[in-house]
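Student:
Attend to each token:
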Amino acid sequence: MKDNKEFLQHISPFCILPDSILKEVSDMMSIKTFKKDETIYIQDKSPVTTIDIIVKGAYKANFYDSTNVLRLEELYNSNDIYGGSSVLLNKQFSIRTVIALEDTEVLTLDKEEFKALCRSYHEFFEFFSNQFGNKMLNDAYAHFVKQNTMFEENFIDADLIFTRKIDTITPRLLVTCSPQTPLHAVAALMRDNVVNCVYIKEDNELVAFVSKDTIITNAIANEKSIYTEVMEVAEKEVVTISKDALVYEALLALYPSQKEYLLVKDGEQNLGYLSRYRLLTEHAQSPLVFIQSVKLSNTVFELKEKWAKVPEFIESMLGRGVNAEIVNRIISTIADEILFRVIKGVIKEMPPAPAQFCFMVLGSEGRNEQTLATDQDNAIIYEDKANLQRETVRAYFLEFANRISTRLDDIGFKFCTGGFMAKNPKWCHSLSHWKRNYDSWIAEPAPDQVVKFSTFFDCRFVYGDKSLFDELHHHMLDCIDKAPPKFLYNLVSNTLQYEVPLTVFKGIKTFVKNDKKVFNIKHSMSTIVDMARMYALQHKIQDNNTGARLKELHKAGHFDESQYKELLNAYYYLMGLRLKNQSTQILRDFTEATNFLELKRLTAVEQATLREIFKFIKDMQWVIKARFNINR
């Protein structure tokens, strides 16, 4: 065959790849030929090292039962692809016996490069996962695949886990009562309807709920009368989820609230409720069960042990093709749960807080984009008190923050080298003091002041009185309205500081660190983070996650469809490489996780994709320069 690339342009899903990537892939491929009736693979014996695209001829693929009787036969003709499912199921050996029906010529691609394509291009991967899903509708095919495959550590299984929707789980019956209902009547409702949770309805709205655990904790333990009105002991925060949401999203929604029950909605209609336990059983083999075990840990030692196990989960999820966006959310949720346990522990051992307060996280954790190379970025807001109490209140919260930070450092969350921690007197203030900080950062927007403002724009409430956080956040948005032109100029300039690591000949530029040729992948991602933040600040978009910001900016027309998809794919592709590199450093190299990535550890497909991403980032920087009329 004269031109591999020309041939691949007509083969799905290779035809959807960018032209430059298709050229790289075509150069990696090899031609193999087989004689008529030649056995190519033997079921459960022959290793699958490539995927095969049939150029001419045909494959016959058979399933045999344990007595070697033929049970199922499939044909693969010209332009068909064999081996995709075997590779994505990460099975070492072929799940079928394959014979050449006639003299056959195939184009082969190494399985590692194929998996790299699946990680890099979601539509490419979807072609094979959808193909596999359609085949599994055939009972005979499903029987033999399940019999011969353990469904562990594979791309396709991961896709099924993390794409399952709430509407595939039937919610429990919704039982309601009025706020004035006495506790004994609520208990009777639970008994008669065989439910563990009753929601409280007021003016046709569900405003609270009470569970069996709530009655034990808030009523019986406090010696409340059985005639006490239910609203007095109820949980006031109702967590809701759409029936169209994903199951893993529902679980992640429950963890920050520390609630056990989730109200399922179809638009404005209430369908019923689901418990945390029910959702966990749907994900029995997933890291979400691990998050629940973190919730049950109470000591610093236990929490340290839990955090030490996180790299194994990350490596497993990435190895199975789980999207980096999901992995980020899971790491951040685990980190939040650890932080929550630490805060609760410190609260128990200190005297009661002398004022209402709010603990918030910043930076990557504030954006729900935490990695394994992480440090502490946090701050405290406390309510204003009279002059005589100010120093006492401040001293309390600095000691409070110091204990929290020290324990987090023991667990594995290092002290921030830049000092962005609540234990630093600069980042532990009353609400009015914080407001003055924002006012000063905006009034004289020197580059370092703009960086501070940006850092605190990437903030997220974790614990305490959320009204303090909300008031400060609204003040921040008001400040943006008053910002002088230089503020936006410095924001844009900051986005343009990064120089993409491409050589004159479009290779990837590296530098030597510890005798290894590396590049800093965090810096590569920072441009996209800065870009999304800069536009979000300019247009007062309140989402703090980079992916969510890009989505909102696209919806508002600030990025066209192509720019939005390229930015989103580039960001999470880089994040996937970053997380994979960090887990490898911890688990294989026995070193600390860093953001320095060795080029030689990447496949040819991954290197080619990186080059395309860097070229795109450079193009987007030119777009920003033109849009904001910046000459540099």
